[in-house]
Amino acid sequence: MSSKLKNFGLIGLGMVAGVVGSMQIDALAQKNASSSLPLDELRQMTDVFGLIKSDYVEPVDDRKLLTEAISGMVASLDPHSAYLDKKAFKELREGTQGKFVGLGIEVGMEDGYVKVISPIEDSPAYKAGLKAGDLITRLDTTPVKGMTLDEAVKRMRGEPNTKITLTVSRKDEDKPLFITIMRQEIRVQSVKAKMVEPGLAWVRVSQFQEPTVEDMAKKIAGLYAQDPNIKGLVLDLRNDPGGVLPGAIGVSAAFLPKDVPVVSTNGQLPDSKATFYARREFYGSRSFGDPLSKLPDAVKNVKMVVLVNSGSASASEIVAGALQDYKRATIMGTQTFGKGSVQTIRQLSPDTAVKLTTARYYTPNGRSIQGLGVVPDVMVNEYPDGDGLDALRLREADLPKHLTNDKSKEAEVTNKVNELEEEQRLAALDKKRKPLEFGSKDDFQLAQAVNFLKGLPVQVSKTRVVENKKEPSINDPEPTKGEK
Length: 484
Hints:
Keywords: Hydrolase, Protease, Serine protease. This protein has 484 residues and is an alpha/beta fold. The protein has 12 helices and 22 strands.
């Protein structure tokens, strides 16, 4: 691809493809006492600090210099580790609770500009008309060119009820667009649900937050109250970037037998070597009792399809991987993002923290999806004529310094669509389309999932995927009943 999304994030959330493994309030006290400190390098660091203080063209604040040094040190590890200053830490905590102040867009960098990957449903950006693929070239009067993504994100965030004007370049527009948006506290409803037709339900999880398990249980219970004879259920995880680990465990537990392993983790620390089961203690709740107790028994056996795409990451992949390993559901769509690592929040002070990658996670059958993703049982493109711009999306294996897959020597999945000719063809097709609303009558993948549940023919993709051939019994599961 001639230009790739170099990084991405949610305005106001501070994470997209992250699993927040735990929120630990203790100071960062995990040390390896047996390893000696590199004294020569530490002396060099203090020497450089002294040189900057004495020789730099203008005075530099000590605190700023040290903070930037910490930030750079953590960011050098992998794409998902980060130093969280006061503002970022506050936003992360708010984000996991399902609220944040901002515009409500998932963004990336392309050719030095901020690219809109997707506006969050019902957000100020969504209502203002921002579209996937828009390039933001100015923030108020300040050019974006030359900014880092983090700098641009900070400028777009702010206090509630303050305005920002974005200068937007759109492929099918000859002139720049000027879009003014009011920043607001956005409460993200992470679960939507409805009956798509008699006997067939659709449940969408857009992000895994603290309220997700409880919200999903209420929505599913409501669907069964509406139609007690549900014969098929579509769990929609497309473009779900992840979120809190207990949410993924709880969503999986809703459909799996009680007490079965859902996901395991492994890292350096003893507490990072763990197995998480489909039990109340592992998915938690903001209220007393088990939120899944609200679900009817039928939900454990209802025929299921899980929809995924290249935007399904981390916690989404935990759910898809677990349901696939137990052959509980047919996974349908396109290959997922491939983020198989767990991030833990270690608090440094009352207002700051480090988000640190502390473990890799594994599906119940021991698969690592790091850099590979989950391969659907049934490959279905986003549109009848192809996968559109979804085929050009960045994956974990495209990110600089990403962790390797410790379970497979097979090639990791990167974006193979790298010819300008193909990119232009897909972009031309995308211009003719309205923005896809998941769950709408124009949702082609959902229509194929419904066909599958009804035993009707499914229009499958001919897309080639990269699979972990080392464990064919895991990545090539037996066809689900009714699959052709």
